[in-house]
Structure formats: C-alpha cells, structure tokens
Amino acid sequence: MAVTIKRAALIVAGLGVLSFILGVIAENKKPEAGTPIPGKGVVICKYPRDPSLALGYLSVAFLMLSTIAGYWSLFYPYKGKSVPHSVLFQSASFFVFFNIALFTSGVAATLLLWPTITEHLHLIRNVHHNPTTTCPTAKTGLLGGGAFVSLDSALFWLLALMLADNARHDHFYDVEKHSKAQVLPDGC
C-alpha cells in the first residue's frame, strides 16, 4: 500500500478531527468544582468521576500524531521522488503556512495541556489547609479553545501539504524541461 498525498492528507485531517472532538468532549465533561469535605484544620476536595482528564490527554496525543503526520507528509518522497527541502522553502507561501502550522500546533498543545495538567494536579493534591477552599477545577474554556486550535493546526498542515505538492510539481516540471533541452538530436 503506497502512501499518496491523498492518504497523507486523510491521516492528518482524521487525527486533527479526533483531537478536536476529544478536546470538545473533555471541555463539556469537566466538572465546575469539587465538593469540599471539612476536617480538622483541612479541607478535602472530592471530585466527581469524569472522563475529562483522559480525554484531554488523548486530545493532546492525537494533536501530536497529527502534527508528526503533517510534518512527515511534507517531506515524504512520493512515488520514490524526493524534493530537496530548499526547493520547498523557496516558496514564500509554503514557508509562511509551514510556520503557521508549527505555531498553531504549539499553541494547541499548550491550551490542551495546561488545563489537563492543572486538573490532574487538583485531583492529586486534594487536601488543602485553607478552610475557605472551594475545591476549584481547571480554568473553563481552555480545553475547548485548544480543541479548536488543534483543528486549525490540522487545516494549516493540509494547506502546507497542498503548497508542498505544488512546489513538488513545479520542481519536477523544471527538471524534466531542462533534461529535454539538453538532449541533442542525432547528426549534430
């Protein structure tokens, strides 16, 4: 089964959509607060069981897989023909969208990891010595925002892949044109 640009695009898009869906579900399932249980000089926070932590980490994992697949798809030698990286980066639009894809991947990872790790810490460190603790959870909205930026990241990887494909076609057209121009007819 040969890897084609269409297959690579489907993999990048599929992983990006999975990251988006899991991030949105994690945002919707996240509890607003825990239940404070007062004790002698401490408050123990009891949080309801919810899948937001696992979904947050899965969303980050699919974002990373989408990013790796997007990066890999740009430089993969389709049909056994590789293109020098310098040829791809000569295209200004490819350079811009490649950097935007990298940037949005980093922003999405930050927006997904921050509330997921914070929520994880709230679950682990649930004993507080402040009697007025209200048992907070991670900031609301970050997981959902990270999910949307994750989807944007996958779309930017797809745009960069389309631009890389255009640069690849132009490069091979120029190589073919120059090789035909150098062939001399018989009898010269």
Explained architecture:
The protein has helices at 5-29, 52-75, 85-89, 92-124, 142-181, and strands at 35-38, 43-46, 127-128. The longest helix is centred in the last third of the chain and has 40 residues, at 142-181. The protein has a 3-stranded antiparallel beta sheet, with no helix packed on it. It has 188 residues and is mostly helical. A hairpin with a 4-residue loop joins strand 1 (35-38) and strand 2.
Helix content: 55-70%
* Number of E-type strands: 3
Strand content: 5-15%
* Shape, per Cα inertia axes: rod-shaped
Distance between the termini: 46 Å
Give the mean pLDDT.
Answer: 89
H-E string = HEEHHHEH
| Low-confidence parts | none
Derived from helix and strand composition plus strand pairing, the structural class reads: mainly alpha
Helical segment tally? 5
State the oligomer.
single chain
- Radius of gyration, in angstroms, nearest whole number: 24 Å
Strand order of the largest sheet: 1-2-3
How would you describe this structure in keywords?
188 residues, mainly alpha, three-stranded antiparallel sheet
In short:
By secondary structure, the chain is mainly alpha-helical.
Topology:
Elements: H1 5-29, E1 35-38, E2 43-46, H2 52-75, H3 85-89, H4 92-124, E3 127-128, H5 142-181
Antiparallel strand pairs: 1-2, 2-3
Helix pairs in contact: 1-2, 1-5, 2-4, 2-5, 4-5
Organism: Gossypium hirsutum (Upland cotton)
Main location: membrane
Subcellular location: Endomembrane system
